[in-house]
Amino acid sequence: MKHSDAASTSAPLEAFQPIVRQSVNEAVYQALRNKLMHGEYRAGQVLGIQYLADALGTSTMPVREALRRLVAQQGLEPLPNGTTRVPLITKACLSDIRRARVLIEGTVTEWAGPLLTSSVLDQLEQLAQEITQERRTPKGVASSLEKNRIFHFTIYAAAQSPVMLAMIESLWLQSGAYLRETRELLHNEDSSDQLHESTVNALRAGNFAQARQYIQEDVSWIFDRLDLTD
């Protein structure tokens, strides 16, 4: 692929952090996965292999491997010319993703509850407070999205269910491009941020069913502000 494929994506080169002291393949995958989850690539956007390699300071081989993994997770789709793009999905598909995320993420939160330590709950509480503060301004959206991902996946990972965690990752990858723009448009609207702190409080109290409900409400909030009706 020619270097000119850089024009196929709008993310600036400096948006990536240098990769050091990690498996290059895994680091490239994690960088691209997180950007997709955060919605930093728009739906339908073609991702050029050479551009991504230049942006990350790697050869094309780890980029190809990362893209292959993301296609398998349904976060990207292959095109006939050998490139990949962020999938275009229907309102019906988004509605189905919403339903699946509410069910799975709520369930995993309830499973995780008894396994979360006090120190982890302290970390979650700090993250919840920082997310609320940063989402109050447009400039804080990107940082808040990353902290939101860490908040949720810290809980989900504690459930010790690799199968369910893989499902959640796939669902986040598929919906990221659609939810990011909505989140930015609604940064001044009363949000679901208080649900993060309520989740932590419920987990501390051992009320895991209530924590499940708060997570389900949190997941639903942004989807419910999309027009998913045909």
Automatic annotation (TrEMBL):
Tagged with keyword Transcription: yes
Pfam families, per database record: FCD, GntR
SUPFAM superfamilies in alphabetical order: GntR ligand-binding domain-like (SSF48008), Winged helix' DNA-binding domain (SSF46785)
Keyword terms: DNA-binding, Transcription, Transcription regulation
Descriptive protein name: GntR family transcriptional regulator
InterPro entries noted in UniProt: GntR_C (IPR011711), TF_FadR/GntR_C (IPR008920), Tscrpt_reg_HTH_GntR (IPR000524), WH-like_DNA-bd_sf (IPR036388), WH_DNA-bd_sf (IPR036390)
Domain HTH gntR-type: from-to ranges: 22-89
